[in-house]
Amino acid sequence: MPLLTQTIASQTRDIGFPVRRLLPTRQARRVGPFVFLDHMGPAHFSAEGSAGDVRPHPHIGLATVTYLFSGAMMHRDSLGTVQRIESGAVNLMTAGSGITHSERVPADIRQQGTAVEGMQLWLALPDELEECEPAFAHYPAEDLPRWKQDGVELNLLIGAGWSQRSPVAYPLPVFYASAVMPAGTRLTLPEGVDELAAYVAAGELDVDGAALSDNQLGLLRTGQGGELIARRDSRVMLLGGTPPASPRYLDWNFVSSRRERLAQARADWIAQRFPMVPGETEFIPL
Q1: How far from 136 is each of 65, 78, 240, 243, 280, CA to CA, in Å?
Q2: How does pLDDT run across 138-163, given as a tens digit for each residue?
Q3: Which CATH code for domain 4-241?
Q4: Mean pLDDT over residues 20-38, rounded?
Q5: pLDDT of amino acid 181
Q6: pLDDT at 17
Q7: Which of 32, 102, 200, 233 is least enclosed by beta carbons within 10 angstroms?
Q8: Separation CA 32–CA 244 (nearest Å)
Q9: How far is CA 183 from CA 2, 117, 152, 238, in A?
Q10: Percentage of residues in the chain having pLDDT higher than 90
Q11: Three-state SS string across 209-239, please?
Q12: How far is residue 85 from each of residues 68, 151, 223, measured CA to CA in Å?
């Protein structure tokens, strides 16, 4: 049976800067607990002003995972968190019953003309924790396992694999890793992941004889081993894990197992009942 079971091409979106959206699509609503996947940039921003800033907006029922290849972003949220994220680090924001946050381009990144590029993903929360208290955690790059294996530079962001374990804590089994693969290198897939996919942020892979090119997400058959081979220099994100017990519905920035909860979140945002980010006054209409 083929290792590569499905290939999903990205769709370009403009959210103030270019993103390539992979999840959700008609072909796949999720991979494990991952219900949303954007590849941001690379984007350059004007030295002055706020073009490209993501203004305050709400979430429920999910956790956002931010990982940058280059540049930096400044995270602020309604808990009072102010946290700069740079390449190699992980920001994990748990929305639970409701949170509001903004993501802005720092002044030094604008003035230096540094490209901002990275991944923004959403994780579904377990059924019993969909309405948990909001939370935020930051994991610096130096706290995450990073090593070279057969010429491949690996960075384990969430979960366990290749005899390593990430300190990032999540209440569902999740696997998320970055791999920089020079042309000709091989990477054995991790074992014990319920559902698994590979996203080629740049480059091209050979997956058991099938090609997976840049900006494509490949769904992989698990339980049979296998390896990825870099046909040229490549940057690859591996993601997967165990899905939540119930299906998830998405509406704007909201995720829930109950459609009526999504309707309530919409009404709450329109009525401005969500907590707001301290010191910020902008408001994005639904």
Answers
A1: 10, 10, 21, 22, 18
A2: 999 999 999 999 999 999 999 999 99
A3: 2.60.120.10
A4: 96
A5: 98
A6: 80
A7: 233
A8: 8
A9: 23, 22, 10, 18
A10: 93
A11: CEEEECCEEEEECCCCCCEEEEEEEEEEEEE
A12: 8, 27, 35
Task: Say if CB 276 and CB 56 are below 8 A apart.
Answer: yes
For 73, 91, 229, the CA distances from 86, given in Å and listed in that order, are 7, 10, 28
Q: Is 142 helix (H, G, I), strand (E, B) or coil?
A: helix
Locate tokens 């920035």: which residue? Answer: 253
**161: β partners:** 164
> pLDDT tens, 91-112?
999 999 999 999 999 999 999 9
Q: Where are the domains of the chain?
A: 4-241
pLDDT of residue 16: 77
Burial of 48 (0-12, 13-18, 19+ CB in 10 A): exposed
Distances (CA, A) of 105 to 12, 78, 111, 115: 21, 18, 10, 10
